Amino acid sequence: MERNSSCSAGIPELAANMRIGVHNMEKKNIDWSNLGFAYLDTDKRYVSNYKNGAWDDGVMTEDATVTISECAGVLQYAQTCFEGMKAYTTEDGRTVVFRPDLNARRMEDTAKRLEMPVFPQERFIEAVVETVKANEAYVPPYGSGASLYIRPYMFGSSAVIGVKPAEEYQFRVFTTPVGPYFKGGVKPLTLCVSDYDRAAPRGTGHIKAGLNYAMSLYPIVTAHENGFDENMYLDAATRTKVEETGGANFLFVTKDNKVVTPKSDSILPSITRRSLVTVASEYLGMEVEEREVLFEEVADFAECGLCGTAAVISPVGKIVDHGKEICFPSGMSEMGPVTKKLYDTLTGIQLGRIEDKFGWLYEIK
Ligand code: PLP
Ligand code: COI
């Protein structure tokens, strides 16, 4: 079972104690139900700069542009990382953010691996809360199917020409209202087994580094050109084990109703996947296995889904391995029954329809 227990002491208390003024709840005039997953400029964003070994106090700004040196670490050597989470309007009208403490912790892990300064976890949560509050008019209304995507990110802003970490950094948070990540909403996806590798053993696959996404662009554009929705990446060392896609972890369901999810040191530890594991075991009483998954096992599963903040849990109907098709019994027209139960329970918690047993929702007050 996953709880908030392993994050820095005081973070849940900090968030629980946040009582931030009165807010303007008049929503923007946006066609919420027809939003795709695209950037829409909102009113305010958070910025903090790191200089001489310390982060400044941070401010909210209306300026959506960034001005940095032509030789900035991010521009020359891709020293950048990011996070992603969502805010929702619940059934009873609250604005909530889903598990930002885990994003704060993951960004700390990422920063350390990229020789970037850590933006303190407590401040990360405060910045997220402040940014959502400042853009509350963009949090899609309950029932619209949309949410407010929150994007914290950090980059090396000072000049480096020798290969070394920058000395100055900028941490920012912006928000943008979004609909489903995959066109067609919950229609089952078709994946192809990629000929490219997403992450090396002992590389950076387990952190949210921008470089992981830059190198995935060629494979995803190629997959789209070939008519596929996403890539299934295998482990780079043996190419026998299932890793993940470019932006989501896998979750499988066996024919006897067990949830199976790949374990690997080179996949991103998805907060959605970890939440779904708890949903499966603690809410639905299902057996869950987190283990290595051989590609040759995949044809035996009953259902397959992609899980992530953007993807939520998107059903996979078919995986194509160099012309050989694996078709899941759940089919190409709708989600399988277990995937649906997982989806309904997770989104039910996020939207306040189902009890938040583990304190996953951080309310913006
Ligand atoms: N895997 C990759 C490569 C991702 O980019 C993401 C998106 O954040 C995920 C998995 C899902 O992670 P999470 O559920 O924390 O959003
Ligand atoms: C997310 O789900 O938050 C992601 O970062 C996936 C993708 C948009 C990169």
The figure for the number of domains is: 2
Strand content: 15-25%
Count helical runs.
8
| Mean pLDDT over the full residue set | 93
Bound molecules: pyridoxal-5'-phosphate, 2-OXO-4-methylpentanoic acid
Task: Provide the CATH superfamily of the largest domain.
Answer: Aminotransferase class 4, branched-chain amino acid transferase, N-terminal domain
What is the share of helical residues?
A: 10-25%
Query: Given the C-alpha coordinates, what overall shape results?
Result: globular
Instruction: Just give the CATH class of the largest domain.
Output: Alpha Beta
Oligomeric grouping of the chains: single chain
What structural class do the secondary elements suggest? alpha+beta
Q: Span from first to last CA?
A: 28 Å
| CATH architecture type of the largest domain | 2-Layer Sandwich
Number of beta-strand segments = 17
Point out poorly predicted stretches: 1-24
Rg: 20 Å
H/E series: HEEEHEEEHHEEEHHEEEHEEEEHE
Examine the coordinates and then state which fold CATH places here, giving the name of the CATH topology of the largest domain.
D-amino Acid Aminotransferase, Chain A, domain 1
Main sheet, how many strands, which sense, barrel?
9 strands, antiparallel
